[in-house]
Amino acid sequence: MGVHWTGIVFGWGLAISFGYWTTDFLVVQRVMAAKDLRSAQLGTVIGAFLKMMVPFIVILPGLLALAVLPFHLVPENQGGLPNVHTYNEALPLMLARYCGPGLLGLGVTALVAGFMSGMAGNVTAFTTVWTYDIYKPFIRKQAADSHYVSMGRWCSLLGVVVSIGTAYLVMNFSSIIVYAQAVFVFFIVPMFGTVILGMLWKRTTPAAGFWGLLAGIVTSFALWAWVKVDPGALRHVAFSEHAKDMAENVYRAMWSLIVNVVVTVAVSLFTKPKPEHELKGLVYGFTELAPEGHFPLFRRPITWAAAVAVGFVLLNVLFW
Question: What is the number of domains present in the chain?
Answer without folding.
Answer: 2
